[in-house]
Amino acid sequence: MIDVIINSAPREAILKILFKSCDNIQKAFYGDTPSPDLESTRALLRSQCSHYQILYIFFTLLNVDCDLKDYIFNLEHKSNHYKLVRFYTDLRKCVVSSYSKDTDNQIVHFVDECETLYVIS
Length: 121
Known about the structure:
Layout: H1 2-7, H2 11-30, H3 36-46, H4 51-64, H5 66-75, H6 81-101, H7 107-120
Helix pairs in contact: 2-3, 2-4, 4-6, 4-7, 6-7
């Protein structure tokens, strides 16, 4: 499923998944209290952001949202489950932690690292 999102999923389908993920995070971490970060993410998704920006948001939300992880996991063929578990772990430990330390990284670099990590997982 991740390879489909990276390469060929329709924009509207990806956006639907991402808005749902924002809702999941809102409920899990903030309850009824508005989150400025989530609101700015939703606003960016409503704008004409680039495919790389959408992928950046996808990987960032995937790192945080357990419901999104489960959703992707359940869509994948059973033979890819170990690959996904490895990818989820490496996403958190390698890419996201590295990116958060180096704010000079570009969105494209972050997305490219996530894509590469998924391929080699």
